[in-house]
Amino acid sequence: MLRALTAHQAERLDAGQAAIVIGLIGRGIQSSRSPVMHEREGARLGMRYTYSLIDFDKLGLPDSALGDIVEGLEKLGFAGFNVTHPFKQSIIPHLTGLADEASAIGAVNTVVLKDGARTGHNTDCWGFAESFRDTMAGCPMSNVVQFGAGGAGAAVSYALMELGVADLAIIDSDRERAERLSARMAPRFGQRAHASADVEHSLSRAAGIVNTTPVGMAKYPGIPFAADLLSTRHWVAEIIYFPQETELLRRARALGCRTLAGTGMAVYQAVRAFELFTGIAPDRAAMVGHFEAAA
Known about the structure:
Order of helices and strands: HEHEHHEEHEEHEHEHEHEEHEHH
Shape: globular
Pathway: Metabolic intermediate biosynthesis; chorismate biosynthesis; chorismate from D-erythrose 4-phosphate and phosphoenolpyruvate: step 4/7; Aromatic compound metabolism; 3,4-dihydroxybenzoate biosynthesis; 3-dehydroquinate from D-quinate (NAD(+) route)
CATH topology of the largest domain: Rossmann fold
Pfam families: SDH_C, Shikimate_dh_N
Strand content: 15-25%
Active site: 88 (proton acceptor)
Catalytic activity: shikimate + NADP(+) = 3-dehydroshikimate + NADPH + H(+)
Binding site for shikimate: 32-34, 84, 109, 124, 241, 269
CATH architecture of the largest domain: 3-Layer(aba) Sandwich
């Protein structure tokens, strides 16, 4: 694992460089703003704080190296790490325990390494919910369609249930994955969520649309359904923040729909993760400023 890290990363991980060392594990993450958000907030609070990217694409690592990477970060003295696509669910077997919210959701985006334990948390759920409350208050929550049932999608589904969605249709290219997610939520939320394969019918009765798939990222351009199904009656939420305006958001705004960009979730999940890593609550407004400064 250590051989896989670049010389630049290895230098930054020197114990003399930072008292708190954090990382992000994922693929295609070179544009992530997490390092800037975390490091600037750490500096503002007077901490020696380093945040490094462990990009499996850049390092040429297979998915099967995940366990070795986690073990290596632990040996290097990391206090924890964030997890993003495509590892939010596959990380779980490499952990020693899960916080309640991560266990319920079945996905992890934050891991705290402490006293020999590797504890998985999910701050995506809280991050999406807080962002929605800030920006989308008053949106009808009767029928919502969510595209995507992966790790991020699982967290957003739970957030939508907690926000009061009465009927959530989950659409995924893997129908069984959507069915597993809706079944996982049933004990807590009843039968308010269900898998759907009928995109046109689901959107025809929906008040809101949430995209949790990678479609819309620079690497995966487009929108996750036929554009002519988007209507002025819909509100639309994204979790993608790079680019900040996806094609879906651009089309929705052109129609006059209320929209929620992925930036709020990106900032708020980091707010909660920072507190888990350090034990100190960061300033939300400052974190927003750090995020914007990283553009």
